[in-house]
Amino acid sequence: MTPAELAKKDEFYSIYWSEYNLVKESGSPELYDKIHNRNNYADI
After folding, report:
1. Each residue's pLDDT tens digit in the chain (44 positions)?
2. 23: Cβ contacts below 8 Å, ≥ 6 apart
3. Considering only CA atoms, which of 31, 7, 12 is closest in space to residue 21?
4. Which residue ranges make up each domain of the chain?
5. What's the domain of life for this entry (predicted)?
6. Which of 6, 26, 27, 29 sits a CA distance of 20 to 30 A from 35?
7. Do residues 38 and 44 touch, judged by C-beta distance below 8 A?
8. DSSP tag of 43
9. What is the number of other CB atoms lying within 10 angstroms of the CB of residue 2?
10. Which ranges constitute the DSSP H helices of 1-44?
11. What is the per-residue burial (b if ≥16 Cβ within 10 Å, else e) of 6-41?
């Protein structure tokens, strides 16, 4: 990957984990519902 691609990837994951942790810390059932409403691993 080029340095520009790596920077874009780092920016993406920074935003992704920031949002993930915000939802997780807020106690929102949204994250739980999305993960646990699966019938099996094939749905993932």
Report:
1. 899 999 999 999 999 999 888 888 877 666 555 555 555 555 54
2. 30, 31
3. 31
4. 1-25
5. Bacteria
6. 6
7. yes
8. G
9. 7
10. 3-25, 29-36
11. eeeeeeeeeeeeeeeeeeeeeeeeeeeeeeeeeeee
